[in-house]
Amino acid sequence: MPMSTANRPLGSTPPGDASGEIEISLYESRKKIQTRSVTGTFTRLRWAAVWFTQILFYALPWFQWNDRQAVLFDLLSRRFYLGGLVLYPQDFIYLTGLLVMAALSLFLFTAVAGRLWCGYACPQTVYTEIFMWIEKKVEGDRAARIRLDDAPMSRAKFARRSAKHLAWVLFALWTGFTFVGYFTPIRAQTAEVLAGTMGAWQTFWIFFYGFATYGNAGFMREQVCKYMCPYARFQSAMFDKDTLIVTYDAERGEPRGSRGKKVDPKEKGLGSCVDCTLCVQVCPTGIDIRKGLQYECIGCGACADVCDEVMDKFRYARGLVKYSNQNAITGGWNQAQIVRRALRPRVLVYSAVLAAIAMAVGVSLYLRVPMKVDVIRDRGALARMVERGRIENVYRLQIMNATEDQQVVNLAVEGLDGIVIASDPQVEVLPTEVRTVACGCRCRRVQPVARTPSCSSCGRRTTRPSAWTRRPPSWCPFEVTVRATRASAPRHRAGGQPQLQALPQPPAVSNRGNSTLFSRWMWLIRSSVSCAVPA
Ligand code: SF4
Ligand code: SF4
Fold first, then answer.
1. Rounded to whole angstroms, how far apart are CA atoms 312 and 393?
2. This prediction's pTM
3. Separation CA 465–CA 445 (nearest Å)
4. How far apart are CA 227 and CA 231, in angstroms?
5. Pocket probe mutation, ligand 1, options 42, 272, 279, max atoms within 8 Å of Cβ
6. Atom 4 of ligand 2: nearest residue by CA position
7. How far is the CA of 275 from the centre of ligand 1 (A)?
8. I need a labelling partner for 101 at 20 to 30 A (CA). Which of 48, 274, 363, 517 fits?
9. Which residue has better confidence, 380 or 31?
């Protein structure tokens, strides 16, 4: 049997068994990382990002707009509220635009400054930072936590561990509660929590999201970045030699070695690195930046901050570990050259495309029609003859009011001599309401003919031809077609079923006057209804 090597360090030579078979484990047990506290420019920037993103996340659902939640993704009623914007699933194109912009921003910022997102704004980084802060407050700094880890279970250890986990759980549940508050009104949700009347799904998602936060930020931490996040894997495709990364200046730092503060390193033949390993101790992913660029590095800059502190203590120049790029390190570039190179063609192309898409989405949102209409043929009623020989066709109009004002819509129809709206031509649509109305269209009386006509395409005959038909050649009283102006749909299909298609949106509708609405509706009906009745 092959010998298990699960706990053997990778790279060591495994002993073979009698048959010469060797099993090499591809699994490495996790070594718990206890990071040391650090201060400095990049740490302050990271905390600024933590405050900004978290204040935004926790406060946003509590803001009100027109007596409703300002930001609410109401999945049940399929409406998305963003301030004064009311979006429907039909506005999915804006979400697509937003995702494209997010992807392009990621490309742009990565090309310029490496893993900025990972180091400063990614929820995994942000929540890990918060959970580590709680841990430090309850259990002490790195040395105290390592001692606590090694100590046997005692009342004091149990109390500290319980307090830490209680704080983590409460924070995680609050996070889950806030997250669900983006999808159900958070004030009503608070009342339900206090009354103990929460729905099953709400409860599930609060606990699910809370559990994910607790697990990822409390336990998984750097493992998420190293093994689960795909971005860490494909980021190298977006790097080039001018991308800013956290680098160790090996030329200046090597040969490394410990020394006293008053010792001249040149006399001892040493570089600037005092081999204090503080850069490793502060690293949230536990790597040694002196080994060069590694995919585990999230670019947080903690090692640069702590190394600057060490350099200050030894009165050496700062910047042994710093944000730089490969070209700058090998070519000895100064700051101005690095900044100039940041504006290279690749970055300019990303910026131009991003700006163009942002502008297109902005203009499209600005010109967005606040009223959406779908017209479909009523499947429940065929074309029929009504009083005085008139022919009636019924359509279903689905009117979506994307404003927060009540709208009055006037309906009109054009296209055939004498065609009129048979139902109420005025429709009231409440704020953000989706209203479905039946709209009958009647055209004038037609002359009877003596013989039974049949449709030239489907061959069907009418049952009462003499009462309501005139001469052929090519019309069918059963057949009503709703056309999209851009579609070239056939008038008939096998089986003679009407061909229904989605309609183009009407031009922008003003919510101020019925006259504008009227003209837009005229346009809509005129462009969309075609009845196969002889003129
Ligand atoms: S913190 Fe700076 S001096 Fe200390 S080991 Fe790291 S690179 Fe060397
Ligand atoms: S190597 Fe430095 S920049 Fe990279 S993750 Fe570790 S501390 Fe952050």
1. 86
2. 0.75
3. 13
4. 10
5. 279
6. 297
7. 5
8. 48
9. 31
Instruction: Please state, in angstroms and rounded to a whole number, the distance separating the CA atoms of residues 280 and 36.
Output: 9
Which-ligand-closest: CA of 278? 1
- What is the token pair recorded at 181? 């508050």
Nearest CA to ligand 2 atom 7: 283
Location of structure tokens 């200050």: 312
CA–CA distance, 123 with 130 (Å, rounded to integer): 10
Distance from the alpha carbon of residue 334 to the mean position of ligand 2, in angstroms: 23
**Residues 6+ away with beta carbon under 8 Å from 504:** 484, 485, 486, 527
Q: How distant, in Å, are the alpha carbons of 77, 247, 377, 400, 477 from that of 397? A: 19, 63, 9, 10, 22
Residue nearest to atom 3 of ligand 1 (CA): 273
Instruction: Find all residues with CB under 8 Å of 195, minimum gap 6, and list them.
Output: none
| CA atoms of 175 and 193, how far apart (whole Å) | 14
Place of tokens 């009083």: 387
pLDDT digits (tens, 9 = 90+) for 107-150: 999 999 899 999 999 999 999 999 999 999 999 999 999 999 99
Q: Residue 309: CB within 6 Å of ligand 1?
A: no
Whole-number Å distance, alpha carbon 277 to ligand 1 midpoint, is 6
CA 279 to ligand 1 centroid distance, Å: 5
- Please tell me the number of the ligand nearest to residue 279's CA: 1
Cα–Cα distance measured from residue 203 to residue 104, given in angstroms and rounded to the nearest whole number: 36
Rounded distance from Cα 144 to ligand 2 centre (Å): 22
Ligand 1: does its nearest atom lie under 6 Å from the Cβ of 327?
A: no
* Buried b / exposed e along 370-388 (16+ C-beta atoms within 10 A): bbbbebbbeeeeebebeee
Task: Work out whether the CA dihedral 361, 366, 367, 373 comes out positive or negative.
Answer: positive
Ligand 1: atom nearest CA of 275 is 5
For residue range 31-79, list pLDDT tens digits in order: 889 999 999 999 999 999 999 999 999 999 999 998 899 999 998 888 8
The token duo for 58 is 């926790």
- Whether the Cβ atoms of residue 110 and residue 118 lie closer than 8 Å to each other: no
Distance 119 CA to ligand 2 centre (A): 9
Whether the Cβ atoms of residue 274 and residue 354 lie closer than 8 Å to each other: no
Identify the residue whose tokens are 């030894």: 314
Verify whether ligand 1 is closer than 6 Å to residue 278 (CB atom).
Answer: yes
Residue 11's pLDDT is 41
CA-CA distance, 208 to 214, in Å (whole number)? 10
